[in-house]
């Protein structure tokens, strides 16, 4: 059983990607580099192979965190500072991810493989990268297992959700003058490089003290936050601007004659932000265990698998949103993958709800088991989604996912002849 209704498969042939990038850095600095870099790839390399290569680099970076900082995943209060070169490798890896993520579309146009499969695959990898980089960046900033890392996860996922929600209602992927995929990534690369030179302790310094501004009359009235917390505040301001711009773009598209043809008219656009609010509230409620000081999960080795499970559930959620966009189907308001998080959150909050102890999470060990089971279920659910969607699209359109091939009218696989070596 696939995810795409049979009567909506034809919309796959009509789908065309539309994007608008206002970033000056992208236009005048990175895009000329990307245009040159894609020419280094042979036209027999599939665009999705390039995308997957970028995600594999990020997964390797995440593996180095777990290898060189094993206490992050095994001890309640322990940390081991990775070697300085690890932080540099994270910066290089993220820059390579950004580069490969940018050229896969160019490669698709070079090889004549542009279409909805590339859109789905690209955004799916971006969704997974969002959570992995959140954990890496939080570790580089010295935030570790804390509510600041949770806040960072919420902010980064909210940005991604807003962009997907905006694209669903407008039909256009908007990137503003300061966007996460361009300037945001470069900023995180800079954080990795600084941490590589100075260590994560540098981010514990106070911002006004570091800038020698703490004695100025007006500045002294503003809290002298540590640099890492100041970065979180800066991210919150950026999120607020993105919310405003996304809302204005959706409002303009909704008021246009006829609106976007794929917009789900059953719901007001703003109400379709509630699924993200609800899913995020579930995760925070689970973390906010009322029976104990702070939370077993935040203060324990269960934190990393918990965030990874959260990220996989989010990837499933936005994956269905993107699928609805490329097929013209209704907006996915409810996602069944949240059920296990509902169980975890309700069980953890039974002392608050019914004044009885949790039934499942009765000890740190049992809590860890529930978290790891949630991670496995979330991984299998997302893997099933990816497999079925790729199967549906490739079978209907007669294309391959990781090779530059298409089926002819007789059902025989043949290599695609590049339409042009000129880049669009």
TrEMBL record:
Pfam families, sorted: CDP-OH_P_transf (PF01066)
Pathway: Phospholipid metabolism; phosphatidylcholine biosynthesis; phosphatidylcholine from phosphocholine: step 2/2
Main localization category: membrane
PROSITE patterns from the UniProt entry: CDP_ALCOHOL_P_TRANSF
Database matches in InterPro entries: CDP-OH_P_trans, CDP-OH_PTrfase_TM_dom, CDP_ALCOHOL_P_TRANSF_CS, CHOPT
GO CC term (a single one): endomembrane system
A GO MF label: diacylglycerol cholinephosphotransferase activity
Reaction(s) the record says it catalyses: CDP-N,N-dimethylethanolamine + a 1,2-diacyl-sn-glycerol = a 1,2-diacyl-sn-glycero-3-phospho-N,N-dimethylethanolamine + CMP + H(+)
Location(s), subcellular: Endomembrane system
Keywords: Membrane, Transferase, Transmembrane, Transmembrane helix
Cofactor needs: Mg(2+)
EC number in record: 2.7.8.2
Transmembrane annotation, as ranges: 24-44, 50-68, 230-250, 270-289, 295-315, 322-346, 366-385
Membrane topology reported for the UniProt record: Multi-pass membrane protein
Family the UniProt entry places it in: Belongs to the CDP-alcohol phosphatidyltransferase class-I family.
Protein name: diacylglycerol cholinephosphotransferase
């Amino acid at each position: 059983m696939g995810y795409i209704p049979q009567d909506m498969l034809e919309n796959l042939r009509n789908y065309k990607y539309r994007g608008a990038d206002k970033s000056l850095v992208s236009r005048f600095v990175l895009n000329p580099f990307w245009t040159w870099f894609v020419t280094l790839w042979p036209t027999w390399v599939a665009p999705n192979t390039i995308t997957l290569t970028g995600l594999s680099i990020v997964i390797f970076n995440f593996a180095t965190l777990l290898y060189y900082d094993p206490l992050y995943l095994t001890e309640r209060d322990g940390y081991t500072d990775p070697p300085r070169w690890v932080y540099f490798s994270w910066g290089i890896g993220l820059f390579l991810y950004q580069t490969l993520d940018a050229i896969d579309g160019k490669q698709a146009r070079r090889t004549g493989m542009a279409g909805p499969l590339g859109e789905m695959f690209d955004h799916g990898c971006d969704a997974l990268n969002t959570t992995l980089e959140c954990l890496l960046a939080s570790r580089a900033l010295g935030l570790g297992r804390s509510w600041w890392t949770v806040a960072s996860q919420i902010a980064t996922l909210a940005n991604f959700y807003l962009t997907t929600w905006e694209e669903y209602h407008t039909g256009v992927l908007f990137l503003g003058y300061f966007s996460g995929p361009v300037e945001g990534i470069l900023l995180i690369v800079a954080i990795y490089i600084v941490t590589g030179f100075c260590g994560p302790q540098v981010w514990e310094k106070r911002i006004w003290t570091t800038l020698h501004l703490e004695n100025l009359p007006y500045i002294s009235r503003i809290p002298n936050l540590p640099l890492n917390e100041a970065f979180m505040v800066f991210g919150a301001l950026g999120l607020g601007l993105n919310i405003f711009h996304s809302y204005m773009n959706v409002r303009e598209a909704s008021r246009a004659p006829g609106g976007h043809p794929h917009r789900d008219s059953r719901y007001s656009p703003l109400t379709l932000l509630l699924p993200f609010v609800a899913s995020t509230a579930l995760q925070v409620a689970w973390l906010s265990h009322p029976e104990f000081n702070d939370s077993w999960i935040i203060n324990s080795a269960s934190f990393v698998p918990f965030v990874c499970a959260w990220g996989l559930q989010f990837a499933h959620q936005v994956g269905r949103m993107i699928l609805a966009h490329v097929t013209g189907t209704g907006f996915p308001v409810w996602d069944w993958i949240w059920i296990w998080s509902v169980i975890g959150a309700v069980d953890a909050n039974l002392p608050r709800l019914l004044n009885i102890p949790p039934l499942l999470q009765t000890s740190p060990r049992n809590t860890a088991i529930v978290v790891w089971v949630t991670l496995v279920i979330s991984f299998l659910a997302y893997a099933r989604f990816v497999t079925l969607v790729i199967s549906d699209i490739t079978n209907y359109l007669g294309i391959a996912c990781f090779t530059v091939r298409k089926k002819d009218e007789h059902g025989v696989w043949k290599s695609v002849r590049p339409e042009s070596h000129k880049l669009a």
